[in-house]
């Protein structure tokens, strides 16, 4: 597109607290309503398509897409396609407890013939605590990095050949530079897919 050029971008989100309250209540229809309210506003200002960098709330996407005024790129489908393209076979799945125990990545990975492994329940709980209590507030502790590295090392030793960073905040502390496995940064992969689509449709 040339120096300093990029597609036009519009952003809308309600307060994270609005989403968290619905997640804690297991209210996925409420999550979908929030997503659709953003979709309507973005459609009204001229957006061509939509992305959501939050992995967790993709669990509501099934009911969102049918009612959305615009098409969406799906973060797990983009990430699973990248994993397949790089010939990974068994993915360590990290993210919030809602995401790790939900269908978002299992469905997408299975569709590409890929296997996955979840952290153990106690690992999931601590990883979720680090995300929600530390990372979302901008707190980055060496102990948190070490914990994620230890979990990924165990999953590597259990047969995983790459790790999905299935939360926007995890790449703030874990990357290819310090992880014991190759990582798939779902947020960056979605951003790059959105850029390609915007340029191709330009």
CATH topology of the largest domain: Rossmann fold
Could you give the order of the helices and strands? HHHHEHHEHHEEH
| Mean of pLDDT | 96
Structural class: alpha/beta
Q: Categorize the overall geometry.
A: globular
Walk me through this protein's architecture.
The structure is a single chain. With 202 residues, this protein is of the alpha/beta class. The protein folds into 2 domains: 16-72, no CATH class; 75-189, Rossmann fold, CATH 3.40.50.1860. It has 9 helices and 4 strands. It has helices at 16-24, 28-44, 61-65, 75-85, 97-100, 104-111, 121-134, 142-157, 186-201; strands at residues 90-94, 115-117, 162-165, 183-185. A 4-stranded parallel beta sheet has the order 2-1-3-4, with helices on both faces. The chain is globular, with a radius of gyration of 17 Å. The N and C termini lie close together (10 Å). The model has no long low-confidence stretch (mean pLDDT 96).
């Amino acid at each position: 597109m040339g120096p300093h050029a990029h597609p036009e971008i519009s952003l809308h989100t309600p307060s994270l607290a609005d989403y968290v309250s619905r997640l804690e209540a297991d209210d996925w229809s409420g999550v979908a309503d929030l997503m659709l309210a953003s979709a309507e506003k973005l459609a009204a200002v001229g957006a061509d398509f939509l992305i959501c960098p939050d992995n967790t709330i993709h669990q509501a996407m099934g009911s969102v897409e049918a009612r959305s005024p615009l098409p969406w790129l799906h973060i797990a489908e983009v990430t699973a396609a990248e994993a397949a393209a790089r010939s990974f076979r068994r993915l360590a799945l990290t993210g919030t407890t809602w995401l790790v125990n939900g269908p978002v990545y299992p469905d997408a990975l299975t569709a590409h013939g890929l296997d996955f492994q979840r952290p153990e329940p106690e690992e999931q709980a601590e990883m979720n605590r680090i995300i929600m209590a530390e990372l979302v507030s901008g707190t980055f502790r060496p102990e948190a990095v070490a914990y994620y590295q230890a979990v990924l090392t165990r999953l590597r030793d259990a047969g995983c050949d790459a790790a999905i960073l299935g939360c926007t905040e995890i790449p703030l502390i874990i990357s290819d530079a310090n992880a014991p496995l190759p990582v798939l940064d779902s947020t960056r992969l979605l951003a790059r897919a959105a850029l390609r689509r915007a340029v191709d449709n330009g």
